[in-house]
Specification:
The protein is of the alpha/beta class and about 220 residues long. It contains ten helices and six strands. The longest helix has 19 residues, at about 75-95. Bound molecules: 1,6-di-O-phosphono-beta-D-glucopyranose and magnesium ion.
Length: about 220
Amino acid sequence: MTRLENQILQEKRAFIFDLDGVICDTAKFHFMSWQKIANHFNFQISSSLNESLKGVSRKNSLEKILNAAQIKTSEKKFDELLRKKNEIYLEKIDKMNPKDLLPGVKNLLLKAREKGIKIGLGSASKNAKLVLSKLDIEDFFETIIDGTMVKNSKPDPEVFLKGAQGLSVQNEHCIVFEDSQAGILAARGANMKVVAIGNELKNYDIRYSSIEQANFENIISLTK
Ligand code: B16
Ligand code: MG
């Protein structure tokens, strides 16, 4: 790498967004879909169990639910439950449209683009691209890393490391927006700054209860 290329790389900053719970409220659809699956074995998903499912892959989520319900299944039944959950989830997101963007998201994306901040997505969801297209915001994202592109799901840092690589931005110059503890751990593991969205989260640099409260200057100063 030449000195100039190195300097450009060092100056670049990026925002990497989680999807569910940050950009749109699909977290509630995941919860409703899992609860329908859990109804098959008369199990109620508590709010703390639901919290632990956020940012976690579909497969790991089902493992956690079955573990909490103390249920063992065959591999065939396990795969069938995964398929069924996704079928229910797809029905729920079918009618999503740009109005389902959470307040403040579009403004933040516009501001980041205007200021030359690179924008990426780092989601555990295999449906991330479908949701972005329903929200009509795919064009903002220079790189999209989703659940189909990683071997290890959050809290492993892989999704964000690949995001930084895709954007050609140094890890420590990336700011991750996350609503889950698993996602925050993943961002920390990638040596990135963290803007937490929601309550009762730990290990962040700044926290807002929603993206609407986000202050661009305070966020960008995290990487100065
Ligand atoms: P899918 P994120 C995550 O998305 C969700 O938070 C999590 O609840 C879900 O299990 C996971 O995606 C997998 O989603 O079943 O659509 O592949 O928060 O990382 O954007
Ligand atoms: Mg999330």
